Amino acid sequence: MNNKITAVLVDDHAVVRAGFRLLLSSGDKIEVVGEAARGEQAIQLYQECRPDVVVMDLSMPGIGGLETIRRIVQRDSEALILVFSVHHEQVYVSRALNAGAKGYITKNSAPELLTEAIAAIMRGECFVERGLLKNQQDPQPSNDHQAILAEFSPREFDVFRLLAEGMTAQKVADQLCLGHKTVANYATQIKKKLQVDTTTELAHIAVNLGMLQR
Amino acid sequence: MNNKITAVLVDDHAVVRAGFRLLLSSGDKIEVVGEAARGEQAIQLYQECRPDVVVMDLSMPGIGGLETIRRIVQRDSEALILVFSVHHEQVYVSRALNAGAKGYITKNSAPELLTEAIAAIMRGECFVERGLLKNQQDPQPSNDHQAILAEFSPREFDVFRLLAEGMTAQKVADQLCLGHKTVANYATQIKKKLQVDTTTELAHIAVNLGMLQR
DNA sequence: ACGAAACCGGGAAAAGTTCCTTATTTTCCC
DNA sequence: GGGAAAATAAGGAACTTTTCCCGGTTTCGT
């Protein structure tokens, strides 16, 4: 096997991409054949390069990581996507895997894990960093919120997250490039699904699920 | 000193009162001369009994613990009030002391601490459970929120707390027996002081200060 | 290809917010 | 005690947000 594994990097932060490029290249097994700063670029790049794997951050401007995964997988159901995210919360992991990712590691995991993970998903395995899924198959008594949330559509989830962070509906609309009425409608719908009355309670749910840091 | 220390107990939960009555009486130094389930009763009881100390929970229906402390101290500036609360957060401690309490211990502190605390405040000392105030005089770099919050008027603080919990302005108005316009005005004022735009951000502040449990 | 679900937003009524203003009460200081 | 300052309470008017209902498009699975 003389051929290196080809990879593309997707992250909105150039410094992070540079670092990961070095990290990946250092092993002599992997070659980074492309970089993208946002989802739309990544999709296009994928179709041009057809790399063996995609290494992708979740938080990005524009369509965001989850949606990017969905679109790539939609175009090539064999695509191997490894998520590396700052989020270590279960909700993000399960949503990423549901979207079609084959692996999930966090940004502060051991550097070796990155090549390990890539090797694993190249073998057809599904690689999730140790500990990230432990709460998931445990029969947790409470928190049907978690379950409800996991069934949210991408848009619902985005609107939920941004509202829960404390943004006004108007700002959410700007960020997602939607009409304010649209966001308002989603908000109403989300509150109904989670059976709460106020946006503040959405924040509490997000906090309780550990979705919000700092 | 043949005379026992006289005390009144204030807590909205009868079981808790019963337990504490036993606990206090067991030492042979203290005699419980009265009990009250809520602030209004407590104030009346205090004027009738004039006990040496008042042992009081903070969370109560009606006017609440802080307001009760204020009103008792207002009528008798020599009153010795010991707060025992479930809350171990700095904000509550400092507000209780500002309101006029002479001591603060939490409900899961060692039982001996209760008699110790009473003895201390009887000697004219101010007794705060170890560790509860440690963050306060530390020059903390961040969190001016804490400072701003500590200067809130009683009403501002109540409105803030209830809004942060996720109540609608209308429900807050009902709870505090105010007009909805009044609550709305307080809400605007509070947001301005804390320099945020949304009620959701108030929740985040409360969470970050550890004011909200579960 | 057809139904289901997701997605987007218009319109109207209800609810909530902001800003300004007024008034009473409490508190604090000299 | 008298007066300044702060807290408390709320009305009115303009404005924004939210809710509810609806219709339209795109996309997906089978």
Automatic annotation (TrEMBL), chains A, B:
The modification 4-aspartylphosphate is found at residue 57. Pfam families: GerE, Response_reg. Keywords: DNA-binding, Phosphoprotein. PROSITE patterns: HTH_LUXR_2 (PS50043), RESPONSE_REGULATORY (PS50110). CDD domains: LuxR_C_like (cd06170), REC_NarL-like (cd17535). Residues 6-122 form the Response regulatory domain. InterPro entries: CheY-like_superfamily, NreC/VraR/RcsB-like_REC, Sig_transdc_resp-reg_C-effctor, Sig_transdc_resp-reg_receiver, Tscrpt_reg_LuxR_C, WalR-like. Residues 145-210 form the HTH luxR-type domain. This is Response regulator transcription factor. It comes from Methylomonas rivi.
